[in-house]
Every structure is written in structure tokens, then in C-alpha cells.
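Q: I'm writing a short methods note and want an example of a predicted protein-small molecule complex. Could you take the sequence and the SMILES for magnesium ion and return the bound structure as C-alpha cells? Please keep the output block clean; save any remarks for afterwards.
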Amino acid sequence: MLERRSCFSRKAAGTKVAEQLIAANVDTVFVVTALNHDFSLNRIERYLALIREAGADAVAVLTKADLCDDPAAYQCQVQALDPLLVVETVNGLDTASVSALQPWCRAGSTVALLGSSGVGKSTLINTLTGQTAQLTAEARVADDKGRHTTTSRTLHLMDGGGILLDTPGMRELQLADCETGVQETFADITELVKRCRYSDCQHQSEPGCAVIEALQAEQIDGRRLANYLSLMREQTHNTASLAEKGPETAPKAVITVPCKRQRGCVKGR
Ligand SMILES: Nc1nc2c(ncn2[C@@H]2O[C@H](COP(=O)(O)OP(=O)(O)OP(=O)(O)O)[C@@H](O)[C@H]2O)c(=O)[nH]1
Ligand SMILES: [Mg+2]
Ligand SMILES: [Zn+2]
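A: Understood, no commentary inside the block.
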């Protein structure tokens, strides 16, 4: 068995307290979002936190550009989350459009596609591999929600040697043990937090809170701050629940994960 370089997990869906592995040894994750009702900056930030924690690179892939009136406006909104994030806007059904994603799919690279049901993950796999191995199905007309067509994770080899991992659309992606990932995703807010007067500041109404000052000065966005606070609370809560459950019930496979971000660092999970 190969040593894991990167590892994705989430808190298992529902009320169950357990960590669920999603994928390992992934180099890049395409965060697939459709330019329709599915579009959510909060959800993209949630995925980015998970990916940064796992030590993989993220590419935001905005699909269904052909059905959207103003794809560039959405692209700007996603780019504003992080100036260094690669954001690609594509028509997943069109080979020329999807070729923008080829640089991440080189020989020896593994790319996982994550995103809600119906956003076009399997469609991208089919177009990138030039095959029709993956079943796809139309989303509901009323709200663009997918039909959970893909039900298992599968690997697909590209002619050039890249490997693509198709995954079922996730209904729920709860973060656990993801503090560093959240901090990296919200690097602007993390910098402000360091300047708060009290080290245990909750950024609600404390005096000398640099975060609230920045919000009032309109240097940070209210939506982004609310999502940061909510993801931090969620991951702290889930991490505590998993720890309470004890190591004997945790899946054996996730006990130690070598962390790619810092060579030689072994992150206990
Ligand atoms: N017009 C257009 N349709 C697309 C695009 N990408 C995907 N679709 C269509 O959207 C529907 C859903 O695509 P899928 O590839 O099945 O979505 P998925 O993300 O794999 O969904 P699950 O397997 O349920 O998680 C299909 O009818 C696709 O043909 C796109 O960029 N443009
Ligand atoms: Mg699918
Ligand atoms: Zn504060």
C-alpha cells in the first residue's frame, strides 16, 4: 500500500459522529460549481478549506457557462475569494472549452472532481477522456438540482497519463479537524484575528476587535466573515465530537496522514 500524500475526509453525513474518507493522494481538486442556482460562494469556501487542509491544489471550475448570461461576473466573484486561486469558466460539453483544464491533468497527476450533484463532474470526465464511460443525467429544470447520477467513486485514465477521480455529488460536506484549512482559505481574516486585543476574541462585540473594525470600515465582506465564523464553529464542534468518540472507534486508515504542505510533518487524524 502506498503512503498517503494527501487525504480528504469529511464528517460523515447526518448525525453520525464519524470521519469519512473521500480520497487520498490527490494532487489537484476541481471544485465544480455550475453557473445556475447551484452557485454559492459559501460552498466554494467550504470546499477550499477542505482542500487546503488536505494539502492539495484547488482549481475552481465554473460549468454551464454556455447557459449563463454573464459568466465573467461570476468568475470575478470567485476570484475575489482569493487572488491566487485559479478559476476556469467552461462549457463541460465542449472539448475546446474544457481543454483549459488539461494543464492539471498531466501524466502522473491525480485530479479529483468535487461538487454538488448535477453540476457536471461526470460530463467533464467524459469530455476530458473523450469517452462516455460515466453516466450523466439532466438536472431538474425548476431548481437545477442534480439527480445523484454518480453513486460511487471511480478512477479514469486519460490518454496522456493523467488520472481523474469522479465522485458522487455530496449533499452535505461537514468539516472536521480543518482549522488550518479554514485559516488558509480566509487568510485576510486570519491576519485581522491576530490583531484583536484579546487572544480569545470571538469577533462579536469585544473592544479592540480588529475583525469588527475591518467590517465596519468595509474592508471585509459581511458574507465572508459570517461564513468564516460559521465554518470555524462547525469544524471545532465536529473535531471535539470525533475526539470524544475516541480513537478506538475512528477508522483505522486515518490515524496518521503525512502532510504534503510541510515535508516530514505527520499530521495525526
Ligand atoms: N449546457 C451544459 N450542460 C452541462 C454542462 N455540464 C454538464 N451539463 C449537463 O448537466 C447535467 C448533469 O451533468 P452530470 O455530469 O451528470 O453531473 P454530475 O456532477 O456528475 O452529477 P452527479 O453524478 O449526480 O453528482 C447533464 O445533463 C449534462 O449534460 C455544461 O457545461 N453546459
Ligand atoms: Mg456524476
Ligand atoms: Zn476579534
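A: Remarks, as requested: The pocket of zinc ion (ligand 3) is lined by residues 196, 201, 203, 206, 209-211 (CB under 6 Å). The chain has a mean pLDDT of 85.
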